[in-house]
DNA sequence: CTGCTCGGCA
């Protein structure tokens, strides 16, 4: 009964059952408490978990091995690794030695933070102690390498597993399938699934959902539907995750009406809706400028007592920020804290962003400091947001200082970081410094792209250095650069499947379309076909690239003129 | 009653 309540997310009812148990003369034991504790931790609601633990102790129930492990898992999930380690110390003090579960969860926590090397070290440590790494340990590390390290290292570990005589299980295979999907290698992904048929671990629900998602992301909706069909034929019912994948695809295609209809009819079709279903549509509404519908959906979700996760909160906070309703956004932030949720980097970045946009750079930095305090690592998003805030507030020197600190600390930066700094420098007329950064970003293989060029071009033009501007423009149309651009577009997975379907994948037809649209000044439409043809793997003629890029420069010029 | 794989936010 209690388990049932937890599964439905009705924690309060679960807790009230504990009281009822007592009325019937049976007392909750540690299993009862551990069950509920586990669900709080899974949902990231640590405050409530803490309260329950306190309650448990007051009832004189000693935490057991399960209790400790549940807490380790809970802390690891939200990235509080120090706290997780404290629990382990506590375990030792209570004569409960960390077991394979404890190690695996800690390794998973480290991988989640991108700290793979430390995770591997922990695995070695296990081997030296009596706790031998198992298939779960390997799966965790393999997935960690794919996510945050190199795939070579991931595959190396797969080999190591084989050498040790460990069998790759369904999860191992699913991790590989997911990785192939992420790389856009759908053929290899489905080949892996086919191999699973022959191994002792046939494809399961996760495999199918992974493939469906992969095909959706690749814009291959036909294959996605085929996979859903196959999933059904193999006896797997589609579940909430399948539904959410479809919802997301519909939203991305701007088919909000269909998405909303699907959401409404889902329960009739036997689907369970969760906070991801609502959050997906919510984000879709905000993206498409239908904020009123989004807010309506939020209250509908609350009415149904579906509990928002930190990501759901991030979505609504971001939406409110975009509406300029900063106060309301902040109040949602406070609400999630009250609900015992732990804000993540995205939460902070979103609010830092809105402060920067409002010119409250000091407040933005306060929040940045808070982030560090909470041992959340400011990431490349944080950096870019702060830099852009400083630049547009006329504090270029401070921006440069931050930029240099960031680099000297060896933290990751990306193309956006460079473009932000370059455009900041250009605005102040510091072209030589900007050029310096352009060559630096080239060295790091981070560009330049048309944002970089347009910043530089704008600065050259306003300095009256027209010859150099021309020179730059011709550099832009170098074929090498276009290759890079098209690769990037592929990676960004820009989706326009409607166009993809509508246009002839014949390379000449595409090229002609693009050139024609450019001639008409419809550069945006031209870009969309360019993206679509990229997706289909259509090779365009060189002149298409040139016309398109020249068109983009003109458009950027037109835009920057409009701004001035 | 605890761990690894699938869906969403920046």
UniProtKB/TrEMBL annotation:
Signal sequence region: none
UniProt key word Cell wall biogenesis/degradation: no
PROSITE patterns in UniProt: PPR (PS51375)
InterPro entries: PPR_rpt, TPR-like_helical_dom_sf
A GO MF label: mRNA binding
Keyword Repeat: yes
Placement of PPR repeats on the sequence: 1-28, 29-63, 64-98, 99-133, 134-168, 169-203, 204-238, 239-273, 274-308, 309-343, 344-378, 379-413, 414-448, 449-479
Pfam families: PPR, PPR_1, PPR_2
Superkingdom of origin organism: Eukaryota
Keywords of this entry: Repeat
Family: Belongs to the PPR family. P subfamily.
NCBIfam families in the record: PPR (TIGR00756)
Protein name in the entry: Pentatricopeptide repeat-containing protein
Organism of origin: Gossypium anomalum
Taxonomic lineage from the root: Eukaryota, Viridiplantae, Streptophyta, Embryophyta, Tracheophyta
């Amino acid at each position: 009964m209690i388990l049932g309540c937890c599964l439905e997310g009705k924690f309060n009812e679960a807790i009230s059952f504990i009281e009822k148990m007592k009325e019937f003369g049976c007392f909750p034991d540690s299993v009862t408490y551990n069950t509920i504790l586990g669900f709080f931790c899974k949902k990231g609601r640590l405050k409530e978990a803490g309260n329950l633990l306190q309650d448990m102790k007051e009832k004189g129930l000693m935490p057991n091995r399960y209790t400790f492990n549940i807490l380790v898992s809970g802390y690891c999930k939200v990235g509080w690794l120090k706290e997780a380690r404290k629990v382990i110390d506590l375990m030792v003090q209570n004569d409960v030695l960390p077991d394979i579960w404890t190690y695996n969860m800690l390794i998973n926590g480290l991988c989640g933070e991108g700290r793979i090397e430390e995770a591997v070290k922990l695995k070695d440590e296990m081997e030296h102690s009596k706790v031998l790494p198992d298939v779960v340990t390997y799966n965790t590390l393999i997935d960690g390498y794919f996510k945050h390290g190199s795939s070579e290292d991931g595959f190396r570990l797969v080999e190591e597993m084989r050498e040790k005589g460990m069998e790759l299980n369904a999860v191992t295979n699913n991790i590989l399938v997911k990785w192939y999907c992420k790389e856009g290698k759908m053929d290899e992904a489905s080949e892996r699934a086919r191999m699973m048929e022959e191994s002792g671990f046939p494809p399961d629900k996760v495999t199918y959902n992974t493939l469906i998602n992969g095909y959706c992301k690749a814009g291959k909706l036909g294959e996605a539907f085929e996979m859903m069909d196959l999933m059904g034929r193999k006896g797997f019912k589609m579940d909430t995750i399948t539904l959410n994948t479809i919802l997301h695809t519909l939203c991305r295609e701007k088919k909000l009406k269909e998405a909303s209809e699907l959401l409404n009819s889902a329960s009739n079709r036997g689907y369970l809706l969760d906070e991801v279903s609502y959050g997906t549509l919510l984000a879709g509404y905000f993206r498409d400028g239908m904020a009123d519908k989004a807010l309506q959906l939020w209250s509908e979700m609350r009415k149904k007592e579906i509990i928002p996760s930190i990501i759901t909160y991030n979505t609504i906070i971001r939406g409110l920020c975009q509406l300029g309703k900063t106060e309301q956004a902040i109040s949602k932030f406070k609400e999630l804290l009250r609900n015992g949720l732990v804000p993540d980097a995205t939460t902070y970045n979103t609010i830092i962003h809105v402060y920067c946009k409002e010119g409250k750079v000091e407040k933005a930095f306060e929040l940045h400091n808070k982030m560090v305090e909470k041992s959340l690592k400011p990431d490349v998003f944080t950096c870019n947001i702060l830099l852009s805030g400083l630049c547009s507030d006329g504090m270029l020197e401070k921006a440069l200082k931050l930029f240099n600190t960031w680099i000297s600390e060896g933290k990751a930066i990306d193309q956006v970081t460079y473009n932000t700094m370059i455009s900041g420098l250009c605005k102040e007329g510091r072209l030589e410094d900007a050029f310096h950064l352009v060559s630096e970003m080239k060295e790091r293989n981070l560009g330049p792209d048309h944002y970089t060029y347009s910043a530089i071009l704008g600065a050259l033009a306003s300095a009256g250095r027209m010859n150099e501007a021309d020179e730059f423009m011709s550099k832009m149309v170098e074929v090498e650069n276009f290759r890079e651009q098209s690769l990037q577009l592929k990676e960004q997975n820009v989706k326009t499947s409607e166009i993809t379907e509508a246009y002839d994948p014949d390379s000449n037809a595409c090229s002609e379309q693009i050139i024609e649209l450019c001639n008409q000044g419809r550069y945006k439409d031209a870009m969309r076909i360019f993206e679509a043809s990229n997706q289909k793997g259509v090779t365009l003629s060189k002149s298409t690239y040139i016309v398109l890029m020249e068109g983009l420069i003109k458009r950027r010029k037109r835009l920057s003129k409009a701004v001035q």
